[in-house]
Amino acid sequence: MLRRPYQAGSALRVSQRACELVFGGRLIQSAKSPFVALHSVRRLANLSPASPTWKIASRSFTTSQPCLKAKRQQSPPTPQSLGGAQTRFNRVSSSSDSKETPAVEDVGTTTPQAAAPNLAEITAAVDRVTKAFMANTDIPSEDLTLTALRACAQTEVRQAADIEESHHMVAAAEDRPVSRLLGLDGDDAKKAGRSNIPAATPVLRPEDVVDKVSEAAYAIVTHPTVVITPQVLAEYVRLQARLGRPQTLPQVLALYASKPKPKLVAGSITYIPSNPNKAEKAVDNEIADAALDAAIEAKNLEAAVGVLESTYSSKAFLRSKLLKKAVLPASLVAVAPVALWVVATQLAQLNYSLDNATAVKYAFIGVFCYVGFTGTIGAVAAFTSNDQMKRVTWAIGTPLTHRWLYEEERATLDKIACAFGFSEEHRFGEEEGEEYLWLREYMLKRSMILDSVDLMPGMN
Protein backbone atom coordinates (compact mmCIF):
# COMPACT_ATOMS: atom_id res chain seq x y z
CA MET A 1 0.00 0.00 0.00
CA LEU A 2 1.45 3.31 -1.08
CA ARG A 3 1.39 6.24 1.33
CA ARG A 4 1.19 9.82 0.20
CA PRO A 5 4.45 11.65 0.77
CA TYR A 6 4.46 14.27 3.49
CA GLN A 7 4.44 17.83 2.33
CA ALA A 8 5.42 20.63 4.62
CA GLY A 9 2.52 23.03 4.94
CA SER A 10 2.02 26.27 6.68
CA ALA A 11 1.43 26.53 10.41
CA LEU A 12 -2.19 27.44 9.70
CA ARG A 13 -3.06 24.03 8.20
CA VAL A 14 -1.26 22.18 11.03
CA SER A 15 -3.20 23.96 13.77
CA GLN A 16 -6.47 23.47 11.89
CA ARG A 17 -5.85 19.71 11.56
CA ALA A 18 -4.96 19.45 15.24
CA CYS A 19 -8.17 21.18 16.29
CA GLU A 20 -10.24 18.94 14.04
CA LEU A 21 -8.67 15.85 15.62
CA VAL A 22 -9.37 17.10 19.14
CA PHE A 23 -12.90 18.52 18.77
CA GLY A 24 -14.06 16.90 15.53
CA GLY A 25 -15.32 18.56 12.44
CA ARG A 26 -18.87 19.04 13.76
CA LEU A 27 -17.66 21.18 16.66
CA ILE A 28 -15.93 23.63 14.36
CA GLN A 29 -18.97 23.79 12.11
CA SER A 30 -21.30 24.33 15.06
CA ALA A 31 -19.74 27.71 15.66
CA LYS A 32 -21.92 28.98 12.85
CA SER A 33 -25.11 27.57 14.45
CA PRO A 34 -27.28 29.65 16.82
CA PHE A 35 -25.66 30.46 20.14
CA VAL A 36 -28.24 28.42 22.07
CA ALA A 37 -26.33 25.21 21.27
CA LEU A 38 -23.04 26.57 22.68
CA HIS A 39 -21.96 27.56 26.13
CA SER A 40 -21.29 31.10 27.25
CA VAL A 41 -17.79 31.34 25.80
CA ARG A 42 -18.97 30.39 22.34
CA ARG A 43 -21.90 32.77 22.48
CA LEU A 44 -19.44 35.61 22.45
CA ALA A 45 -17.95 34.20 19.31
CA ASN A 46 -21.38 34.04 17.64
CA LEU A 47 -22.32 37.62 18.44
CA SER A 48 -18.97 39.00 17.35
CA PRO A 49 -18.17 39.59 13.66
CA ALA A 50 -17.30 36.58 11.51
CA SER A 51 -13.80 35.30 12.19
CA PRO A 52 -11.76 32.49 10.74
CA THR A 53 -12.56 28.96 11.82
CA TRP A 54 -9.18 28.35 13.34
CA LYS A 55 -9.59 31.31 15.70
CA ILE A 56 -12.94 30.00 16.97
CA ALA A 57 -11.58 26.51 17.51
CA SER A 58 -8.46 27.68 19.30
CA ARG A 59 -10.53 29.99 21.53
CA SER A 60 -12.84 27.15 22.48
CA PHE A 61 -9.89 24.87 23.12
CA THR A 62 -8.17 27.33 25.41
CA THR A 63 -11.30 28.47 27.37
CA SER A 64 -13.39 25.31 27.65
CA GLN A 65 -11.67 24.05 30.79
CA PRO A 66 -12.37 27.09 33.01
CA CYS A 67 -16.06 26.85 32.06
CA LEU A 68 -16.30 23.56 33.98
CA LYS A 69 -15.60 25.33 37.26
CA ALA A 70 -18.40 26.46 39.56
CA LYS A 71 -19.72 29.88 38.77
CA ARG A 72 -19.14 32.54 41.33
CA GLN A 73 -22.15 34.14 42.90
CA GLN A 74 -22.73 37.52 41.42
CA SER A 75 -23.44 40.45 43.67
CA PRO A 76 -26.92 41.92 43.34
CA PRO A 77 -27.07 44.73 40.80
CA THR A 78 -27.18 48.25 42.14
CA PRO A 79 -29.74 50.80 40.97
CA GLN A 80 -26.95 52.69 39.15
CA SER A 81 -26.01 49.61 37.18
CA LEU A 82 -29.62 48.88 36.23
CA GLY A 83 -30.67 52.30 35.06
CA GLY A 84 -29.36 53.16 31.61
CA ALA A 85 -26.38 50.78 31.80
CA GLN A 86 -25.07 48.82 28.84
CA THR A 87 -25.16 45.06 28.72
CA ARG A 88 -22.09 42.92 28.39
CA PHE A 89 -22.86 42.59 24.65
CA ASN A 90 -22.59 46.40 24.29
CA ARG A 91 -26.35 46.75 23.75
CA VAL A 92 -28.32 49.38 25.61
CA SER A 93 -31.28 47.82 27.47
CA SER A 94 -34.58 49.39 26.43
CA SER A 95 -37.68 49.85 28.53
CA SER A 96 -39.69 47.58 26.28
CA ASP A 97 -37.32 44.63 26.72
CA SER A 98 -36.95 44.97 30.45
CA LYS A 99 -39.51 43.26 32.68
CA GLU A 100 -40.37 44.25 36.19
CA THR A 101 -39.30 41.55 38.61
CA PRO A 102 -41.54 41.09 41.62
CA ALA A 103 -40.12 42.17 44.93
CA VAL A 104 -38.89 39.20 46.90
CA GLU A 105 -39.99 39.30 50.50
CA ASP A 106 -37.32 38.63 53.05
CA VAL A 107 -37.82 35.35 54.86
CA GLY A 108 -36.77 36.78 58.17
CA THR A 109 -39.18 39.69 58.08
CA THR A 110 -42.82 39.26 59.05
CA THR A 111 -45.77 41.47 58.32
CA PRO A 112 -46.93 43.45 61.33
CA GLN A 113 -50.14 42.12 62.80
CA ALA A 114 -52.94 44.27 63.98
CA ALA A 115 -52.62 45.04 67.64
CA ALA A 116 -55.13 43.28 69.86
CA PRO A 117 -57.72 45.57 71.41
CA ASN A 118 -57.36 46.59 75.02
CA LEU A 119 -59.73 44.42 77.00
CA ALA A 120 -59.82 46.75 79.97
CA GLU A 121 -60.95 49.64 77.77
CA ILE A 122 -63.62 47.46 76.19
CA THR A 123 -64.94 46.43 79.59
CA ALA A 124 -65.01 50.03 80.79
CA ALA A 125 -66.82 51.17 77.64
CA VAL A 126 -69.45 48.45 77.97
CA ASP A 127 -69.99 49.33 81.62
CA ARG A 128 -70.47 53.00 80.75
CA VAL A 129 -73.00 52.18 78.03
CA THR A 130 -74.96 49.83 80.30
CA LYS A 131 -75.04 52.23 83.25
CA ALA A 132 -76.09 55.16 81.07
CA PHE A 133 -78.90 53.13 79.52
CA MET A 134 -80.15 51.73 82.83
CA ALA A 135 -80.12 55.19 84.42
CA ASN A 136 -82.88 56.32 82.05
CA THR A 137 -86.17 56.32 83.95
CA ASP A 138 -88.37 56.93 80.89
CA ILE A 139 -89.41 54.48 78.20
CA PRO A 140 -86.45 54.37 75.81
CA SER A 141 -87.14 54.89 72.16
CA GLU A 142 -86.21 52.40 69.47
CA ASP A 143 -83.33 54.56 68.27
CA LEU A 144 -81.88 54.78 71.79
CA THR A 145 -82.01 51.00 72.20
CA LEU A 146 -80.40 50.44 68.79
CA THR A 147 -77.66 52.95 69.66
CA ALA A 148 -76.86 51.12 72.91
CA LEU A 149 -76.70 47.74 71.16
CA ARG A 150 -74.53 49.11 68.36
CA ALA A 151 -72.20 50.67 70.90
CA CYS A 152 -71.65 47.22 72.36
CA ALA A 153 -71.27 45.71 68.90
CA GLN A 154 -68.45 48.08 67.92
CA THR A 155 -65.96 46.32 70.19
CA GLU A 156 -63.60 43.88 68.48
CA VAL A 157 -63.58 41.32 71.28
CA ARG A 158 -63.85 38.34 68.96
CA GLN A 159 -60.54 39.26 67.33
CA ALA A 160 -58.77 39.22 70.70
CA ALA A 161 -60.27 35.83 71.51
CA ASP A 162 -59.05 34.40 68.18
CA ILE A 163 -55.56 35.82 68.73
CA GLU A 164 -55.32 34.30 72.19
CA GLU A 165 -56.58 30.96 70.91
CA SER A 166 -53.85 30.94 68.24
CA HIS A 167 -51.26 31.72 70.92
CA HIS A 168 -52.52 28.80 73.01
CA MET A 169 -52.25 26.49 70.01
CA VAL A 170 -48.65 27.59 69.40
CA ALA A 171 -47.78 27.09 73.06
CA ALA A 172 -49.34 23.63 73.02
CA ALA A 173 -47.31 22.75 69.94
CA GLU A 174 -44.12 23.87 71.66
CA ASP A 175 -44.85 21.59 74.64
CA ARG A 176 -45.03 18.47 72.49
CA PRO A 177 -42.31 15.80 72.92
CA VAL A 178 -40.86 16.48 69.46
CA SER A 179 -40.62 20.18 70.18
CA ARG A 180 -38.95 19.43 73.47
CA LEU A 181 -36.36 17.22 71.77
CA LEU A 182 -35.71 19.83 69.09
CA GLY A 183 -35.30 22.56 71.67
CA LEU A 184 -33.04 20.84 74.19
CA ASP A 185 -30.18 23.24 73.51
CA GLY A 186 -32.22 26.31 74.29
CA ASP A 187 -34.20 25.06 77.28
CA ASP A 188 -31.70 26.30 79.80
CA ALA A 189 -31.53 29.71 78.21
CA LYS A 190 -35.34 29.95 78.09
CA LYS A 191 -35.66 28.95 81.72
CA ALA A 192 -32.99 31.44 82.72
CA GLY A 193 -34.76 34.18 80.75
CA ARG A 194 -38.14 33.34 82.23
CA SER A 195 -36.77 33.36 85.76
CA ASN A 196 -35.66 36.96 85.34
CA ILE A 197 -39.12 38.11 84.17
CA PRO A 198 -41.29 39.33 87.03
CA ALA A 199 -44.66 37.67 87.60
CA ALA A 200 -47.30 39.36 85.47
CA THR A 201 -50.42 40.73 87.02
CA PRO A 202 -53.61 38.81 86.23
CA VAL A 203 -55.28 40.19 83.10
CA LEU A 204 -58.73 39.82 81.65
CA ARG A 205 -59.44 36.86 79.44
CA PRO A 206 -61.03 37.58 76.05
CA GLU A 207 -63.70 34.94 76.74
CA ASP A 208 -64.74 36.78 79.89
CA VAL A 209 -64.98 40.06 78.03
CA VAL A 210 -67.06 38.40 75.29
CA ASP A 211 -69.40 37.07 77.95
CA LYS A 212 -69.61 40.51 79.52
CA VAL A 213 -70.58 42.14 76.22
CA SER A 214 -73.17 39.42 75.61
CA GLU A 215 -74.62 39.88 79.11
CA ALA A 216 -74.73 43.65 78.65
CA ALA A 217 -76.70 43.29 75.41
CA TYR A 218 -79.05 40.82 77.10
CA ALA A 219 -79.59 43.22 80.01
CA ILE A 220 -80.43 46.03 77.60
CA VAL A 221 -82.96 44.00 75.63
CA THR A 222 -84.63 42.40 78.66
CA HIS A 223 -84.97 45.66 80.54
CA PRO A 224 -88.65 46.04 81.55
CA THR A 225 -89.09 49.41 79.82
CA VAL A 226 -87.59 48.30 76.48
CA VAL A 227 -89.95 47.50 73.64
CA ILE A 228 -88.51 44.73 71.48
CA THR A 229 -89.26 45.70 67.90
CA PRO A 230 -88.22 43.69 64.83
CA GLN A 231 -85.30 46.06 64.27
CA VAL A 232 -84.09 45.68 67.88
CA LEU A 233 -84.47 41.91 67.65
CA ALA A 234 -82.50 41.76 64.39
CA GLU A 235 -79.69 43.87 65.89
CA TYR A 236 -79.52 41.68 68.97
CA VAL A 237 -79.38 38.48 66.92
CA ARG A 238 -76.64 39.98 64.77
CA LEU A 239 -74.61 40.94 67.86
CA GLN A 240 -74.88 37.53 69.53
CA ALA A 241 -74.01 35.79 66.26
CA ARG A 242 -70.91 37.97 65.97
CA LEU A 243 -69.88 37.15 69.54
CA GLY A 244 -70.63 33.44 69.14
CA ARG A 245 -73.00 33.36 72.14
CA PRO A 246 -76.37 31.99 70.97
CA GLN A 247 -77.46 30.70 74.40
CA THR A 248 -79.82 33.63 75.06
CA LEU A 249 -81.40 33.75 71.59
CA PRO A 250 -84.33 31.38 72.39
CA GLN A 251 -85.25 33.40 75.47
CA VAL A 252 -85.16 36.73 73.63
CA LEU A 253 -87.13 35.32 70.69
CA ALA A 254 -89.80 34.07 73.10
CA LEU A 255 -89.69 37.38 74.97
CA TYR A 256 -90.35 39.21 71.69
CA ALA A 257 -93.85 37.71 71.67
CA SER A 258 -94.67 37.56 75.39
CA LYS A 259 -93.00 40.63 76.92
CA PRO A 260 -95.47 43.11 78.47
CA LYS A 261 -95.64 46.43 76.67
CA PRO A 262 -94.76 49.48 78.83
CA LYS A 263 -97.03 52.50 78.76
CA LEU A 264 -96.69 55.86 80.45
CA VAL A 265 -99.89 56.77 82.33
CA ALA A 266 -100.11 59.80 84.66
CA GLY A 267 -96.35 60.02 85.06
CA SER A 268 -95.91 56.36 85.95
CA ILE A 269 -95.11 53.35 83.79
CA THR A 270 -97.67 50.59 83.55
CA TYR A 271 -97.28 47.30 81.71
CA ILE A 272 -99.91 45.88 79.38
CA PRO A 273 -99.90 42.09 79.02
CA SER A 274 -99.22 40.76 75.56
CA ASN A 275 -100.76 37.74 73.84
CA PRO A 276 -97.87 35.64 72.46
CA ASN A 277 -100.19 33.71 70.12
CA LYS A 278 -101.15 36.64 67.93
CA ALA A 279 -100.13 36.46 64.30
CA GLU A 280 -98.37 39.82 64.53
CA LYS A 281 -96.02 38.38 67.18
CA ALA A 282 -94.49 35.92 64.74
CA VAL A 283 -90.76 36.31 64.15
CA ASP A 284 -89.69 37.12 60.61
CA ASN A 285 -88.14 34.31 58.62
CA GLU A 286 -84.91 36.23 58.03
CA ILE A 287 -84.37 36.82 61.76
CA ALA A 288 -85.22 33.20 62.57
CA ASP A 289 -82.78 31.92 59.95
CA ALA A 290 -80.02 34.23 61.24
CA ALA A 291 -80.54 33.00 64.82
CA LEU A 292 -80.54 29.39 63.68
CA ASP A 293 -77.32 29.88 61.69
CA ALA A 294 -75.67 31.44 64.76
CA ALA A 295 -76.62 28.44 66.91
CA ILE A 296 -75.39 25.98 64.29
CA GLU A 297 -72.12 27.85 63.84
CA ALA A 298 -71.56 27.73 67.60
CA LYS A 299 -72.32 23.96 67.60
CA ASN A 300 -75.03 24.43 70.23
CA LEU A 301 -77.82 21.89 69.65
CA GLU A 302 -79.89 23.09 72.60
CA ALA A 303 -79.89 26.67 71.34
CA ALA A 304 -80.77 25.53 67.80
CA VAL A 305 -83.82 23.56 69.00
CA GLY A 306 -84.80 26.45 71.28
CA VAL A 307 -84.72 28.85 68.34
CA LEU A 308 -86.93 26.42 66.40
CA GLU A 309 -89.54 26.25 69.16
CA SER A 310 -89.60 30.03 69.54
CA THR A 311 -90.04 30.71 65.82
CA TYR A 312 -91.39 28.06 63.43
CA SER A 313 -93.12 25.91 66.04
CA SER A 314 -94.97 28.71 67.80
CA LYS A 315 -98.70 29.32 67.40
CA ALA A 316 -98.03 32.88 66.31
CA PHE A 317 -96.04 31.66 63.31
CA LEU A 318 -98.71 29.11 62.35
CA ARG A 319 -101.45 31.74 62.49
CA SER A 320 -99.34 34.15 60.50
CA LYS A 321 -98.77 31.47 57.87
CA LEU A 322 -102.48 30.77 57.65
CA LEU A 323 -103.27 34.44 57.16
CA LYS A 324 -100.53 35.03 54.59
CA LYS A 325 -100.71 31.83 52.55
CA ALA A 326 -104.06 30.15 53.20
CA VAL A 327 -106.59 32.98 53.05
CA LEU A 328 -106.29 33.60 49.33
CA PRO A 329 -106.43 29.92 48.24
CA ALA A 330 -109.37 29.30 50.63
CA SER A 331 -111.20 32.29 49.19
CA LEU A 332 -110.68 30.98 45.67
CA VAL A 333 -111.98 27.56 46.65
CA ALA A 334 -115.06 29.15 48.24
CA VAL A 335 -115.79 31.28 45.19
CA ALA A 336 -115.08 28.46 42.72
CA PRO A 337 -118.62 26.91 42.77
CA VAL A 338 -120.21 30.27 41.95
CA ALA A 339 -117.77 30.82 39.09
CA LEU A 340 -118.37 27.31 37.80
CA TRP A 341 -122.16 27.85 37.86
CA VAL A 342 -121.74 30.95 35.70
CA VAL A 343 -119.56 28.99 33.28
CA ALA A 344 -122.13 26.16 33.15
CA THR A 345 -124.91 28.65 32.36
CA GLN A 346 -122.97 29.97 29.38
CA LEU A 347 -122.22 26.47 28.15
CA ALA A 348 -125.92 25.55 28.34
CA GLN A 349 -126.72 28.18 25.71
CA LEU A 350 -124.89 26.06 23.14
CA ASN A 351 -127.25 23.10 23.66
CA TYR A 352 -130.37 22.53 21.46
CA SER A 353 -131.39 18.99 22.48
CA LEU A 354 -132.19 19.56 26.19
CA ASP A 355 -134.02 22.26 28.00
CA ASN A 356 -131.98 25.06 29.54
CA ALA A 357 -132.31 24.01 33.22
CA THR A 358 -131.23 20.41 32.55
CA ALA A 359 -128.34 21.51 30.37
CA VAL A 360 -127.11 23.90 33.11
CA LYS A 361 -127.18 21.08 35.69
CA TYR A 362 -125.26 18.68 33.49
CA ALA A 363 -122.70 21.31 32.52
CA PHE A 364 -122.18 22.35 36.15
CA ILE A 365 -121.68 18.76 37.33
CA GLY A 366 -119.18 18.05 34.57
CA VAL A 367 -117.13 21.24 35.08
CA PHE A 368 -117.20 20.89 38.86
CA CYS A 369 -115.99 17.27 38.77
CA TYR A 370 -113.21 18.12 36.34
CA VAL A 371 -111.95 21.06 38.40
CA GLY A 372 -112.37 19.20 41.70
CA PHE A 373 -110.56 16.03 40.65
CA THR A 374 -107.75 17.91 38.92
CA GLY A 375 -107.27 20.28 41.86
CA THR A 376 -107.27 17.42 44.35
CA ILE A 377 -104.59 15.51 42.45
CA GLY A 378 -102.50 18.68 42.18
CA ALA A 379 -102.83 19.41 45.91
CA VAL A 380 -101.84 15.86 46.85
CA ALA A 381 -98.83 16.01 44.53
CA ALA A 382 -97.76 19.36 46.02
CA PHE A 383 -98.20 18.32 49.67
CA THR A 384 -96.53 14.92 49.31
CA SER A 385 -93.47 16.04 47.32
CA ASN A 386 -90.21 15.18 49.05
CA ASP A 387 -87.56 16.46 46.66
CA GLN A 388 -86.55 19.13 49.16
CA MET A 389 -86.10 16.61 51.97
CA LYS A 390 -82.59 15.36 52.73
CA ARG A 391 -82.71 13.40 55.99
CA VAL A 392 -85.96 14.27 57.77
CA THR A 393 -89.19 13.01 56.18
CA TRP A 394 -92.81 12.77 57.25
CA ALA A 395 -94.12 9.58 58.80
CA ILE A 396 -96.60 7.51 56.83
CA GLY A 397 -100.20 8.57 57.50
CA THR A 398 -99.43 12.18 58.47
CA PRO A 399 -102.35 14.41 57.33
CA LEU A 400 -101.68 16.75 54.43
CA THR A 401 -102.78 19.81 56.41
CA HIS A 402 -100.27 18.95 59.14
CA ARG A 403 -97.51 18.55 56.56
CA TRP A 404 -98.29 21.93 55.03
CA LEU A 405 -98.49 23.76 58.35
CA TYR A 406 -95.28 22.35 59.82
CA GLU A 407 -93.16 22.23 56.66
CA GLU A 408 -90.84 25.01 57.92
CA GLU A 409 -90.34 23.12 61.16
CA ARG A 410 -89.43 19.95 59.25
CA ALA A 411 -87.02 21.88 57.01
CA THR A 412 -85.36 23.42 60.09
CA LEU A 413 -84.95 20.02 61.75
CA ASP A 414 -83.53 18.70 58.49
CA LYS A 415 -80.98 21.51 58.50
CA ILE A 416 -80.07 20.81 62.13
CA ALA A 417 -79.65 17.08 61.45
CA CYS A 418 -77.36 17.76 58.50
CA ALA A 419 -75.30 20.26 60.52
CA PHE A 420 -74.77 18.09 63.61
CA GLY A 421 -74.51 14.72 61.85
CA PHE A 422 -72.14 13.19 59.36
CA SER A 423 -71.62 15.07 56.12
CA GLU A 424 -71.01 11.91 54.07
CA GLU A 425 -74.19 10.54 52.58
CA HIS A 426 -73.13 6.92 52.97
CA ARG A 427 -72.79 7.44 56.75
CA PHE A 428 -76.27 8.80 57.36
CA GLY A 429 -77.88 6.98 60.28
CA GLU A 430 -74.60 5.99 61.97
CA GLU A 431 -74.56 8.89 64.44
CA GLU A 432 -74.33 7.95 68.09
CA GLY A 433 -74.49 9.87 71.33
CA GLU A 434 -77.06 11.08 73.79
CA GLU A 435 -77.81 14.33 71.97
CA TYR A 436 -78.42 12.72 68.61
CA LEU A 437 -80.63 10.00 70.12
CA TRP A 438 -82.66 12.71 71.84
CA LEU A 439 -82.96 14.51 68.49
CA ARG A 440 -84.38 11.35 66.88
CA GLU A 441 -87.03 11.01 69.60
CA TYR A 442 -87.84 14.70 69.33
CA MET A 443 -88.60 14.25 65.63
CA LEU A 444 -90.67 11.12 66.19
CA LYS A 445 -92.97 13.04 68.54
CA ARG A 446 -93.65 15.45 65.68
CA SER A 447 -94.52 12.75 63.13
CA MET A 448 -91.12 12.97 61.48
CA ILE A 449 -88.57 10.26 60.75
CA LEU A 450 -84.84 10.83 60.64
CA ASP A 451 -83.09 8.79 57.93
CA SER A 452 -86.05 6.75 56.79
CA VAL A 453 -84.79 3.48 55.31
CA ASP A 454 -87.38 3.50 52.52
CA LEU A 455 -86.13 6.84 51.18
CA MET A 456 -82.39 6.28 51.51
CA PRO A 457 -80.31 5.95 48.31
CA GLY A 458 -80.54 2.45 46.84
CA MET A 459 -83.49 1.40 49.03
CA ASN A 460 -86.44 3.07 47.28
TrEMBL record:
The lineage of its organism: Eukaryota, Fungi, Dikarya, Ascomycota, Pezizomycotina. The chain crosses the membrane at residues 326-350, 362-383. Keywords: Membrane, Transmembrane, Transmembrane helix. This is Uncharacterized protein. Residues 65-115 are annotated as: Disordered. Residues 80-96 have a biased composition (Polar residues). It comes from the Eukaryota.
